[in-house]
Amino acid sequence: MRRSVLNLAVSAFIIVVLTSCATVSKKDGVAIKKEDDNIRPYQLVGIWKNENMSYTFDKDGYATITMGMQTIGGAGKFKDSSLKYEIDYTQTPMTLDLVHFDTKNNRVRNRMAMIVKFITKDKIQVKTFNNDTYPEKFEENDQYSLFFVRAGEESGEGVVNTSSTNPSH
Q1: What is the tens place of the pLDDT at every residue in 86-115?
Q2: Given 74, 91, 96, 149, which is the most exposed site by the fewest CB atoms within 10 A?
């Protein structure tokens, strides 16, 4: 039930991204990534899946969300917008923003703030309240958290290094 509510919240964000036109973000521009190779333990770039949805984070800072037959995001997937991501590996927990960017007017339409934790190099925990406020921390049996496993790596040639990993946690 809790997972259904969280997936519903993510679905609502997808609808907002698809339909919003005038929401202004608290940040002016989009800095693709903020990282320090000495601090970040693992690379986020790749395809991450659970039983209900997947995220794809490419090396150019674009994100794609897929739920069932509905896919949003990426670069140039929509006429006047894209979905980018920003991750700050220096924060504890790491912060991750999904940024709906208006390419026609060169501005941020809206932003979903998340925190992310690498359980292993191939498993992450993500938490969001589906708005622009970061959750403070992860909690045991956290109803707002989702777990994802790495399903592959994104390359210029498409998906490589796919596996049949079970996403259960």
Answers
A1: 999 888 999 999 998 888 888 888 899 999
A2: 91
DSSP letter assigned to residue 68: T
The pLDDT tens digits of the residues spanning 149-164 come to 999 765 433 333 333 3
Tokens of 156: 């210029």
Q: Beta partners for 70? A: 67
3-state secondary structure of 2: helix
Question: By C-alpha distance, which of 62, 44, 67, 59 is closest to 122?
Answer: 44
Which CATH fold would you assign to the domain 2-154?
Lipocalin (2.40.128)
Contact between 149 and 167 under an 8 Å Cβ cutoff? The reply is yes
Contact between 17 and 72 (Cβ < 8 Å) = yes
Residues 6+ apart with CB under 8 A from 131: 112, 113
Write the CB contacts of 23 (distance below 8 Å, at least 6 apart in sequence): 16, 109, 110
Query: What predicted TM-score, i.e. pTM, was given to this entire model?
Result: 0.69
The pLDDT of residue 140 is 87
Within 13 Å, how many C-alpha atoms sit on residue 56's CB side? Answer: 20
The pLDDT of residue 166 is 35
Q: What is the pLDDT of residue 16?
A: 42
Is there a cis peptide before residue 167, judged by omega within 30 degrees of 0? no
Q: Where are the domains of the chain?
A: 2-154
